[in-house]
Amino acid sequence: MRLLVTGGAGYIGSVVAARLLERGHEVTVLDDLSTGHADAVPPGASFVQASITEAAGVLSEGFDAVLHFAAKSLVGESVERPGLYWSHNLGGTLALLDAMRQAGVDRIVFSSTAATYGEPERTPILETDPTRPGNPYGASKLAVDTALTAFAGLYGLGAVSLRYFNVAGAYGGFRERHTVETHLIPNVLKVALGERESVSVFGTDYPTPDGTCVRDYVHVTDLADAHLLALDACAPGEHRIYNLGSGSGFSVKEVVEVCREVTGHPIPVTTAPRRPGDPAVLVASSEKIQRELGWTQAHGSLRDMVADAWAACAKPA
Ligand code: UDP
Q1: Distance from C-alpha of 164 to C-alpha of 252, rounded to nearest angstrom
Q2: Which of 77, 167, 183 should be mutated for ligand 1, with most atoms under 8 A from CB?
Q3: Could you tell me which of 185, 218, 209 has the C-alpha nearest to residue 280?
Q4: For 149-185, how does the pLDDT look when each residue is reduced to its tens digit (9 = 90+)?
Q5: At what angle do helices 92-103 and 136-155 cross, to 10 degrees?
Q6: For residue 110, how far is its CA from the centre of ligand 1 (angstroms)?
Q7: 137 flagged as catalytic
Q8: Which residue ranges have their beta carbon within 6 Å of ligand 1?
Q9: What is the reported pTM?
Q10: How deeply is 64 buried, as exposed, middle or buried, from its count of CB atoms within 10 A (0-12, 13-18, 19+)?
Q11: Which of 37, 167, 192, 204, CA to CA, is 20 to 30 A from 8?
């Protein structure tokens, strides 16, 4: 298939683009490099440096489907700058959907998020559970999910939204790296690399066993492979939504401990206030995607995810 991967110079988009190329697809990456890196575009992919609001020209060349990763994705930043999140994530995606319609591209796999659920009433979270996002990031992604349902019904779009929980690990040297790093595992590994003195633990008074937030981690390779299954599952007029998690969670303190074991570094921690917008526990049931699309986790251990991320820090792509 001829595929457009928006945000394919970012962490997850680059791994998905690499896996698509391995399967013999023709891949064009569209990325404005606002947070991505040109050297993360996998060899073999064509690259267009542009915003998703400028996708019409590229799409008119003829594509079978879009895999849409390009987005603003930081919870804390979204609380401080909600307008940025609404305009990029919702406005940008509506422009992309419009361009797809004009070009006759009728399949999309969308990078949604666990943040659409907000503070859950129960765990693991099911796709049928209420969506009450606690921050503008989750709200903007939920609005896109709502738009996709409408577009599927009205225009026959075939859409699959994958609601990621936390993603970790690396593939082929493609790893998580942001100019301003906010994510837990990369920040902890920066301490082990000697780039930071300590890691801040945001909140130790949550209603969890050790007082720190609990998150559900999936290896980026397993996550990427779910996109390949989702692409095949796109059916005209249908919008399907699947959670992607492991069904179990690790606290911030447990993650730091695994990082200590993997790196052999003592990794000092400091306690900091809660980060606005963070739910206490986010753990997914992925039973639906397993049952309907046959998704399985080949790399389920947090230790392996941290080890792969650590190896990629030492030997980047
Ligand atoms: N976190 C932390 N210190 C950091 C970065 C993150 O304590 O330097 C916490 C954060 O508050 C959350 C968890 O680690 O409870 C996971 O945060 P991350 O930003 O990695 O992912 P998110 O769950 O926000 O998508």
Answers
A1: 18
A2: 183
A3: 209
A4: 999 999 999 999 999 999 999 998 888 887 778 899 9
A5: 20
A6: 23
A7: yes
A8: 75, 166, 182-184, 187, 199-202, 213, 215, 252, 275, 278
A9: 0.95
A10: middle
A11: 192
